[in-house]
């Protein structure tokens, strides 16, 4: 028997496959945009407890209860509250000589027994692609800073240690600046030298930050020692620079330092100091000890500096020309008192605002078109065979 057998085969044209692929990509990108919409807020709690008798004066407030600054692209101070023995106080905000804001009261507090002062701050940090990277300018015109203190090499910055003096730092600066065309080149030279010739050691120590000459002699120290030296080296060759004190959120990491009459406690927080440089009014961080990536190139300590690349760092205050150790001390209300200083960080992650209207429309249209393409039945091709 001879019969005709018709075989039908459905083929999806390449045109439809291309459209399907494009809209699938659109959906994925839209969903990624939604899933990445989150915000990180830190609760920073600073508690100062004094036992004995004495006076809580302006010095204690200005060095202890500093407000975290709002820095475009890095962080934003949302709100803050000062509690005195558990009760909300009416505060005054002032600015110190290093351009840091702090909270204080309209009068000093006398006490006999025990007093507890607690400053609570909420700081939102920028995350992911929304975090700004501050980088050196492409060109350096040699512009001088508006604040000449950014080039200060007096006091703490100009010291001697054993047989090492400030002249030795100047000699090193002259050596590193040879054959450099711009101040940017010199910045890279200093970073490279510090990376190759010094050692980073982690830990709190009595005595605070070394003066630059001492660090140059030992070539080993903590983040504050390294960056105080680096800032000094930059200033010697007219590169404006200052220090930033910050806290790194580290869940479960606690630090305690116990002295005879004072103690320091940090919960979920690691103190960290890094340098800032200023060229032609452009500020950028330099971080030798806390960078998210390093290929051995000096630019890594700028591009991937913790403040440029991580969301677990909170900047607290700057030191321009003062002795940085002034901010690391625990101040006493009197000689007959004992003081405990507590710092803690609590991290909260929550979804941010709903996706923008444009993103929502893109996702809805993409899903609708994807459904139509799936349900669409393309024309068939028929072939007849004689059997």
Task: Give the helix/strand layout.
Blueprint lengths: L3 E7 L3 H22 L2 E19 L1 H7 L10 E10 L2 E2 L3 E4 L5 E4 L4 E17 L40 H12 L5 H15 L1 E2 L11 H7 L1 E2 L1 H14 L4 E18 L3 E18 L2 E5 L13 H4 L2 H4 L3 E7 L17 E15 L5 H19 L4 E7 L1
Parallel strand pairs: 8-9, 11-14
Antiparallel strand pairs: 1-15, 2-7, 2-14, 3-4, 3-7, 5-6, 10-11, 10-13, 11-12
Second-tier CATH architecture of the largest domain: Roll
CATH topology of the largest domain: C8orf32 fold
> What value does the Rg take, in angstroms?
29 Å
Any idea how many domains?
A: 2
Largest beta-sheet details: 9 strands, mixed
Proportion of residues in extended strands: 35-45%
Structural class: alpha+beta
CATH class of the largest domain, anyone?
Alpha Beta
The helix/strand series, from N terminus to C terminus, equals EHEHEEEEEHHEHEHEEEHHEEHE
C-alpha termini separation: 8 Å
Tally of helical runs: 9
The stretches of 5 or more residues where confidence is low (pLDDT under 50) are 1-10, 380-387
How many distinct beta strands?
Answer: 15
What's the rounded overall pLDDT mean? Answer: 87
Helix content: 25-40%
Characterize the overall form: globular
Oligomer: single chain
């Amino acid at each position: 028997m001879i019969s005709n057998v018709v075989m039908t085969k459905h083929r999806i044209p390449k045109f439809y496959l291309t459209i399907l692929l494009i809209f699938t990509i659109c959906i994925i990108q839209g969903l990624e945009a939604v899933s990445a919409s989150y915000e990180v807020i830190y609760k920073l709690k600073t508690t100062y407890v004094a036992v004995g008798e004495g006076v809580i004066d302006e010095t204690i407030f200005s060095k202890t209860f500093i407000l975290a600054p709002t820095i475009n692209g890095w962080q934003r101070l949302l709100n803050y509250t000062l509690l005195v023995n558990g009760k909300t106080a009416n505060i005054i905000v002032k600015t110190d000589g290093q351009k840091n804001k702090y909270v204080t009261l309209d009068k000093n507090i006398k006490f006999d027994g025990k007093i507890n002062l607690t400053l609570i701050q909420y700081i939102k940090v920028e995350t992911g692609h929304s975090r700004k990277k501050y980088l050196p300018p492409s060109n350096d015109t040699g512009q001088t800073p508006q604040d000449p203190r950014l080039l200060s090499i007096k006091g703490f910055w100009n010291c001697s240690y054993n047989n090492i003096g400030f002249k030795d730092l100047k000699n090193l600066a002259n050596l590193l600046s040879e054959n450099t065309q711009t101040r940017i080149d010199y910045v890279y030279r200093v970073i490279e030298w510090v990376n190759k010739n010094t050692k980073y050691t982690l830990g709190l120590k009595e005595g605070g930050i070394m003066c630059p000459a001492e660090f140059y002699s030992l070539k080993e120290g903590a983040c504050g020692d390294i960056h105080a030296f680096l800032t000094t080296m930059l200033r010697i060759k007219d590169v404006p620079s200052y220090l930033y004190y910050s806290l790194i959120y580290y869940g479960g990491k606690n630090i305690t330092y116990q002295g005879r009459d004072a103690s320091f406690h940090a919960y979920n927080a690691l103190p960290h100091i890094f340098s800032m440089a200023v060229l032609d009014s452009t500020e950028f961080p330099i971080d030798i000890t806390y960078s998210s990536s390093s290929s051995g190139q000096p630019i890594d300590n700028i591009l991937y500096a913790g403040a440029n690349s991580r969301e677990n760092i909170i900047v607290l205050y700057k030191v321009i020309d003062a002795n940085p150790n002034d901010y690391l001390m625990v101040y006493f209300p009197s000689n007959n008192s004992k003081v405990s200083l507590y710092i803690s960080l609590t991290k909260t992650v929550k979804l941010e605002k709903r996706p923008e209207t444009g993103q929502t429309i893109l996702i809805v249209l993409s899903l609708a078109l994807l459904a139509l393409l799936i349900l669409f039945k393309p024309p068939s091709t028929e072939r007849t065979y004689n059997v």
